[in-house]
Write a structure and sequence with these properties.
The chain is of the alpha/beta class. The protein has seven helices and ten strands. Strand 9 and strand 10 form a beta hairpin. GO terms for molecular function: ATP binding; ATP hydrolysis activity.
């Protein structure tokens, strides 16, 4: 029997007369990487914003660690949704210290996440001089400050070069090994295939497929077949 860090039960999100998410049920296993796949505009960001409390579902419920989700659970959830919220005139440590003060976390924790995200050599460098990959890593470092049980990453490899993508893949795998469950969204199939344990395929706000990744399966073909079938129906 699998244990789940988060489940959504028939959640929907309606904006005016349009459903961005429609009657969606998904399950994310503990200590795993869940890859959320879908074309641009499929509803991935909307779903992740509901899980992280940025927006509220119109209907349905979210279950976090076997109990109904509440705002208190945000203390156990770290996230990087869209661009990381950074102060460009501060250093990486100073950015972390601002967040740590709000969370009541020590400076030692700031140094710990800097080391974990391979940013220890940025002590005197302002964020304005960071590469995109460094900013993404710092955004994840911010999300790790509260020792989350669930880490939510929305399109974290967008704009990264191949080396930056490879580094981020390795880091994501270490999170699951260390006991942090991860949801990572992407429209880049090859990235998800290399990092995820399970996948969900989303289109037009509906979860069309959810299962463990089969290493021998052609993920691109599976994805295209599922999306084409949905569009033809």
């Amino acid at each position: 029997m699998h244990e789940y860090i988060i489940k959504t039960n028939h959640i929907s999100k309606k904006f005016k007369k349009t459903f961005a998410i429609n009657d969606l049920s998904m399950s994310v296993r503990k200590n795993s990487v869940y890859g959320l796949l879908g074309p641009n505009g499929a509803g991935k960001s909307t779903l992740l914003k509901m899980i992280t409390g940025i927006i509220t579902p119109t209907s349905g419920e979210i279950i976090f660690d076997n109990h109904p989700w509440s705002r208190k659970d945000l203390l156990k959830i770290g996230s990087l949704i869209e661009s990381p919220p950074l102060y460009e005139n501060l250093t990486a440590f100073e950015n972390l210290k601002v967040r740590a003060t709000l969370l009541g976390v020590s400076s030692d924790k700031c140094m710990e996440v800097l080391e974990r995200m391979d940013l220890m050599d940025t002590e005197n460098k302002q964020i304005a001089d960071f590469s995109l990959g460094m900013k993404q890593r710092l955004g994840i470092a911010l999300a790790l400050l509260n020792d989350p049980e669930l880490l939510v990453l929305d399109e974290p490899t967008n704009g990264l070069d191949p080396f930056g993508m490879e580094d981020l893949r390795k880091m994501i795998r270490t999170f699951a090994v260390s006991g942090i469950s991860v949801i990572v969204s992407s429209h880049i199939l090859s990235e998800i295939q290399q990092v995820a344990d399970d996948i969900g395929i989303l289109n037009n706000g509906t979860l069309l497929y959810q299962d463990k990744i089969d290493a021998n399966e052609n993920l691109e073909q599976l994805f295209m077949d599922i999306i084409r079938k949905e569009r033809a129906s």
